[in-house]
Design brief:
It comes from Undibacterium seohonense. This is Cytochrome c domain-containing protein. Keywords: Signal. With about 550 residues, this protein is of the alpha+beta class. Helix content is about 20%, strand content about 15%. The chain contains ten helices and 13 strands. Strands 1, 2, 3, 4, 5, 6, 7, 8, 9 and 10 form a ten-stranded antiparallel beta sheet that branches. A three-stranded antiparallel beta sheet has the order 11-12-13, with no helix packed on it. It is globular, with a radius of gyration of 22 Å.
Length: about 550
């Protein structure tokens, strides 16, 4: 009966149960949680106890707590691992998906099958185990999975102790109830297969230290990263979250507690305490996948987003299958020189994209739960409807954000995830009629061309296809550095280009935390004086 139910679910998803079965063969689990790195923000492990010295302790289990406690999976492989035998999406039948000449209908069919194969590969062994919490990956009986180390030197966003979730972004949604808007927060945890974790192990060493890359890195073919994202909205605010997986989590204020930029880490811990009694329910809203795939000629990566579909799939037995595929992308459909991203390509809903597929019925379903704020509805997508999930910025796309992933320089600076997070000329701007240097982005915010950089030049930077392991380019065709002269400022003065972390924003953010921890440790900065330079996270 169980196999029949699984087969029916997979059939609804448009994929073969036989192809999935080959990827999910049980094996003797190996414990991948070594305890080398701290597991959560206020982990009391003696080696790292000084990280949260002086802070209010609100992210550690008390004697009255009897629930699960997160452990970091950090025993990274030290030799390359290729799991091709268990990755059916690498079959030749999917080559056509990457061919611009393939019809939109065929491309959509292949994209759906590809994405569901990856999704179920990520779920195998991580859910529905009688003695384990979902996504407790320490002893996966199908295949090992791993976490990023050192997302722990950050009182506001560091991992919480129940599921290892990190605070991602504030998202205000347009809704039909109450005041018409809901201020919410995203919490997420990413896992990496063995192929991807081998690359993590080049940075995060077996002795609990980091080797900061001094040259571009690239993940190997077949690397898979999966990331469930949970939201703090109530069912009254977002009914689409009904019947979705729900976790109890040690989170801060669900409306995204903020602190002054001048606040110390001690002050941040006091202003934004965690709570696992009052603020404890988060529901699955989005599930992101990314796959290293050489057939993506311009980027080397495929990104996909599944979204909550709990109302339409209420009768599906497995709650983790109550999602629908919003889209799959392997390129940014870069605007030609002088053109703007907000209206290129023309009418993608009718004509489609060359380098991605959007499932418009799913976007429409998400939007049906929204109020009058069009761009704040859940199905807003990205610039000109490029792929972006409900948690993501409407001026961007999955790949345009992640392509910016770089090693922080000596001032802990990295390229902004999108131009809106800076004082630069903004991206995805529509010109105001009759004006050449002023416009509006998708949120309706006024934008101006700054420092002699045009809107089209900025779009050309952020919506360029960045090849895996290639430095993110922050210069215009004329050679103007849009971040200013002398940026990046790496220790090696001869390193003039950003050092690529190959689309891994989590690796970039964790390295920033490590580098600041090292600076404070070397300088013996008193706990009450320590400040964390906030990373630029996804915002809506």
């Amino acid at each position: 009966m169980k196999r029949l139910i699984q087969a029916s679910i997979l059939s609804l998803a448009g994929i073969s149960s036989l192809s999935v079965a080959a990827t999910n063969t049980p094996q003797k689990p190996v414990n991948t949680c070594s305890g080398t790195y701290p597991s959560y923000w206020q982990d009391i492990a003696p080696k790292f106890a000084d990280m949260w010295k002086g802070q209010d302790i609100s992210n550690a289990p008390s004697g009255a707590y009897t629930g699960p406690i997160f452990k970091l999976s950090d025993d990274y492989p030290r030799q390359p691992v290729d799991d091709k035998a268990n990755q059916p999406w690498r079959a030749a039948k999917f080559d056509a998906m990457f061919d611009p000449a393939t019809s939109q209908d065929k491309k959509a069919k292949l994209a759906k099958e590809y994405a569901w194969l990856v999704y179920n590969y990520a779920l195998a062994g991580n859910i529905n185990r009688l003695t384990q919490t979902d996504f407790d990956v320490c002893e996966n009986p199908v295949r090992p999975w791993y976490h990023i180390a050192f997302q722990t030197y950050d009182p506001l966003s560091g991992r919480e102790f129940i599921h290892g979730l990190t605070r991602e972004a504030p998202v205000t949604f347009s809704i039909k109830s109450g005041t018409g808007s809901a201020a919410t927060t995203m919490w997420a945890v990413a896992i990496y297969n063995s192929t991807a974790a081998y690359t993590l192990g080049k940075v995060w060493q077996k002795d609990g230290t980091a080797k900061v890359p001094t040259a571009n890195i690239r993940f190997d073919e077949g690397a898979v990263i999966a990331k469930p994202l949970f939201n703090t909205a109530t069912l009254d605010q977002l009914p689409v979250l009904a019947n979705m997986p729900m976790w109890n989590a040690n989170i801060s204020d669900p409306t995204f507690c903020a602190t002054p930029d001048t606040a110390t880490m001690v002050e941040q811990s006091q202003m934004c305490p965690r709570n696992y009694a009052k603020w404890n329910d988060v529901r699955l809203m989005q599930f992101d996948i990314s796959v290293s795939d050489k057939r993506a000629k311009g980027t080397g990566w495929v990104y996909g987003t599944f979204v909550a579909d709990g109302r339409r799939k209420a009768n599906v037995k497995d709650q983790w299958q109550r999602v629908s595929l919003l889209g799959l992308m392997w390129g940014n459909d870069t605007p030609p020189a002088g053109q703007l991203a907000y209206n290129y390509p023309a009418d993608p809903r009718k004509n489609g994209f060359k380098e991605e597929v959007i499932f418009w019925d799913v976007a429409d379903e998400l939007n049906s739960f929204g109020g009058t704020g069009m761009v704040q509805r859940m199905g807003h997508l990205g610039s000109n409807h490029r792929l972006n999930g409900p948690a993501d910025n409407a001026n961007s796309s999955c790949m345009s954000c992640h392509g910016s992933a770089s090693v922080p320089d000596s001032t802990f600076t990295t390229p902004p995830l999108l131009a809106q997070f800076s004082g630069m000329t903004k991206q995805s701007v529509a010109l105001i009629n009759g004006l050449k240097t002023r416009g509006l982005d998708r949120s309706g915010a006024v934008a101006t061309e700054n420092n002699g950089v045009t809107f089209s030049e900025m779009d050309a930077i952020y919506f360029a296809n960045v090849m895996a392991g290639t430095s993110f380019n922050m210069t215009t065709p004329s050679g103007k550095n849009v971040m200013g002269d002398g940026v990046p400022a790496y220790p090696d003065p001869n390193q003039k280009n950003w050092i690529s972390l190959d689309y891994s924003l989590q690796l970039s953010m964790s390295l920033k935390q490590w580098m600041q921890w090292q600076k404070d440790s070397i300088a013996q900065t008193p706990a009450e004086n320590r400040k964390f330079v906030k990373a630029l996270r996804r915002a809506q």
